[in-house]
Amino acid sequence: MAVHDLRGRSLGDLRISVTDRCNLRCTYCMPRESFGPNHEFLPRSGLLTFEEIRDVVVAAAPLGVRKLRLTGGEPLLRRDLERLVEMLRIAVPEADIALTTNGVLLSGKAKALADAGLDRVTVSLDAMDASVYAAMADVDHGPEAAMEGIEAALDAGLSVKVNCVVRAGVNEQDIVPLVRTFGPRGITVRFIEYMDVGATNDWSMASVLPGAAVRTMIEEVHGPLNAITPSSPSDVARTWSTKEGWTFGCIDSVTAPFCGDCSRARLSADGALYTCLFSNDGHPLLPLVREGASTEDLRQAILSIWSGRNDAYSEQRNGSAERSGRVEMSYIGG
Ligand code: SAM
Ligand code: SF4
Ligand code: SF4
């Protein structure tokens, strides 16, 4: 039973945030000034349990959800995450189950996650240079742990991609080194334009390096690029290959928005459904789940939320838009 929103877009992906906590403080996502020692994270009792997440997924799956992505915050901070993967694999055997992680804790978890039924992992890694990595993530270490995590994921048989958020003037010199590190390994790095998500980062248009500039930088070193035809219209990344056959992608969410094909819903760690990354408010499902709603009741609730969806923030973006009150990415999941 496919469900369509007010713009005719179907529901295909569910991104599930399993925690709002993180072991990094990326300046573009959880700046330390806002997410310092006094920040109040969600109480444990307010998080959806694995069983409750599974119940929402089971309700959503017949509406067309085929891709599940576990995210956060840092999803590997949630204890025994592999148990959730296993539960989802059993509940929706045909689903594509992916994980987005900063990779710091991945080396110890990759095999258990793969054994539980995880298909894919995306590791966020913004620089190969240790000091640039440390500056982007606001930590005192380089990318070593994330790199070990990537190796462990490959060893475990998981398909791996790398995400890099590009901030103009901060990590743009790491674009070519990232392609040169991962290209020969058959790992696609996807360069993401820095977005004005949430209300705490210091986004301005000047801090966005357009994807076109990313491609030019790679072209200057590796020669003309070959555009690869997308496998699905809802692919947010456009992909190119270099003459060496190395692939990389660009997610030009600011300069070339893709709201027209957006099939993603987001479930926050405390059980609210968001229909856009730039929403102010979610639709709370937790009360329904905790009141013992049937799968059919939950499905009807999700169907009605998606049917009323009209979001297209990135296409309507206007630099002066009011940001206060907007939900943070670490809370609803990127
Ligand atoms: N902690 C995990 C990680 O970093 O992969 C999962 C959650 S994180 C919010 C998901 C993705 O969102 C990451 O790839 C991150 O780089 C991206 N992200 C966070 N803030 C962003 C922003 N302001 N603009 C673009 N991408 C952003
Ligand atoms: Fe944490 Fe991921 Fe946000 Fe970085 S991007 S602060 S790793 S949630
Ligand atoms: Fe989807 Fe909202 Fe992003 Fe547009 S701005 S692509 S509707 S999440």
Provide structural commentary:
- With 334 residues, this protein is of the alpha/beta class.
- The chain has helices at 50-60, 81-91, 110-116, 130-137, 144-155, 175-182, 211-222, 286-290, 295-307, 313-316, 329-332, and strands at residues 13-17, 67-71, 96-101, 120-124, 159-166, 188-193, 226-228, 238-241, 247-251, 264-267, 272-274, 283-284.
- The protein has a twelve-stranded mixed beta sheet.
- The longest helix is centred in the C-terminal third of the chain and has 13 residues, at 295-307.
- The protein starts with 12 loop residues before the first strand and ends with a helix.
- Bound molecules: S-adenosylmethionine and iron/sulfur cluster (2 copies).
- One iron/sulfur cluster (SF4) is lined by residues 22, 24-26, 29-30, 72-74, 102, 124, 330.
What about the largest sheet?
12 strands, mixed
Strand order of the largest sheet: 7-8-9-6-5-4-3-2-1-10-11-12
**Proportion of residues in β-strands:** 15-25%
Bound molecules: S-adenosylmethionine, iron/sulfur cluster
Oligomer: single chain
- CATH-assigned fold name: TIM Barrel
The helix-strand sequence is: EHEHEHEHHEHEHEEEEEEHHHH
Alpha carbon gap, first and last residue: 26 Å
CATH class (first level) name: Alpha Beta
